[in-house]
Amino acid sequence: MIHIVFNEFDKNVLQQAIELDETLIGEIVCIKDDYAVGPLHNIYLGDGIEARSDWWSDVLSGGDFESKINDTEISDYNTVANLVGTMRRDPEELIWIWAAQNKHDVCGYYWLLNYMKEFQSRVFILYLNNLPFINEKGNIFYPNWIFEIPAKEFLKAKKLAREITPSEFEVDPDEWTKLCEENKGVRLLEGGKKLIQQEYDFYDAELKKFITSDWQKASKIIHQFISKAKNVTGDAYLLWRIKVMVAQNMLDVQGKIANMKDFELKIK
User: Fold this and answer.
1) What is the pLDDT of residues 76-102, one digit of tens each?
2) DSSP one-letter code for 121
3) Tell me: domain 204-267, CATH 1.10.10, correct?
4) Distances from the Cα of 6 to the Cα of 9, 38, 261, angstroms
5) Domain ranges of the chain
């Protein structure tokens, strides 16, 4: 059995669950890119892959995340090539895809499905869509992320595993293809597996609400946004958007524009 998750934090809690239930024993593979942001056009072809890589290089450069630019370990294409090879060599191998009700996991699922077509009947989905679980305090909650679920609750979650149907292998890739052709910069989850798209500046207006007439470090603004905004995204993307707004002379800035703790911002 191979478990596929879309966050490093998911790997940790799933490993804890495996230690509690030997029937879950298997390799845990993480798809690391955030397909909820960035270009998607021709994403399975060389020019599209290169365009996305170049975009991420621009987003990550000159700051906290620059070390990730040349990190070959985060190549999902290498990961999926190894995964496909394993499935072809062992016709008895199964894949379980774990996804929660958030745009990051759902976009990762759509991207991955392109490589799973030849393994129909051997690929299962555990989609935790609006399903209640018990947290560490004994209260009922609805997790937005896999890693929020206590390890012992995975014993219940595993019962949700179901084979991805032939119709899903037909319909879901078509939906993803439409999004890829539309090629906007931000994807949002409306409900179920329904995604809509917005432009790259979608988060800017909400982000600016946390920028006041007083000087604040960029790190504080980003952390406030992540903790309070309704629709959020990763800190790397938010730092990039702040740099774009500064470049467009929309904000006052002092300090070296690099790491988010190195410079301060205020409204003009």
Assistant:
1) 999 999 999 999 999 999 999 999 999
2) T
3) yes
4) 9, 17, 28
5) 2-178, 204-267
